[in-house]
User: What shape does this take?
Amino acid sequence: MEQLLQQIEELKQEIGAFAGTEADVAEQFRIKYLGTKGVIKGLMGEMKNIPNDQKKQFGQVMNDLKQLAEEKWESLKQAGGSGEQAGVDFDWTLPGTPVNAGGRHPISIVRNQIVSIFKRLGFAVAEGPEIEDDWHNFTALNMPENHTARDMQDTFYILQNPDWVLRTHTSSVQARVMEKQKPPIRIICPGRVYRNETISARAHCFFHQVEGLYIDEHVSFADLKQTLYFFVQEMFGKDVKIRFRPSYFPFTEPSAEMDISCTVCGGKGCSLCKHTGWVEILGCGMVHPKMLDNFGIDSNKYTGFAFGMGMERICQLKYRVNDLRLYSQNDVRFLDQFTGSV
Ligand code: PHE
Assistant: This one.
């Protein structure tokens, strides 16, 4: 035992003074002292020859030794990393490790484009809360309680207060703007909306919409058409056509849905447009006079139009993203493909 302790003491000094100049000095150290065939493992083998009453003391001394060796190994590794201290010449002319600067999310890119197109037509951006009350999300929009139109949108209710919902559409912001502002009103409202849907490639429990609202004297359906036509041409190019189909929304009359010629197949027919050549991108219509009256805007004097579109759909048509889930999975292999866009 005495002799062993003496040997360990010498080893400690040896380890403390260990130095080398080669690049792999840390690895050499590890093999010599900490490896499976190393000095420390070998000494551990002596344990069986130690009398029982001294085993504990020997164990402690060995632990100290091992800890010392591991610390030394760490410091050798670190010194090796900076090269110089381990005696290795560091090549300062080597290129640095590239830093991934990241990029904008595709939905943000599309949102910025939409906002900039409508800004050029004089639309300002308005925002509203994502947790909304029943009045702004439904009732003010001509969807009183028990109105069947409420079923069009599967709603998330807030448990603590059934009067609160996660807004199902950005039309709630229309209501908020009309409440505060008097015509002329010309706003768009981009934002996140929520619906109680099972998540799949084609449906998600949250997505993004942009709402548009224009109220002034003499606003007509022709203005709506021209505004949307301008938007589509700016967004998708001059070759893209639009068409309107009659539809129903409780807060607009008349109401329509707008399709654009498929940007993937150019209208010839493909799987995205289900071989029709057309893809629906938004709902729209003339603001219902009842809505205007709800907010004290004289419906004999003023008229207006409104529209609402899904940003994910616009993004899908622009970038051919075929699965809605990709937008919220944060997979950098997906997101990296948009780096460099604005
Ligand atoms: N809010 C409607 C929806 O979510 C879209 C819409 C907005 C329709 C404005 C007409 C006018 O489906």
Remarks:
- Residues 2-81 form one domain.
- The pocket of phenylalanine is lined by residues 169, 171, 211, 249, 252, 283-285, 306-308 (CB under 6 Å).
- The chain has a mean pLDDT of 91.
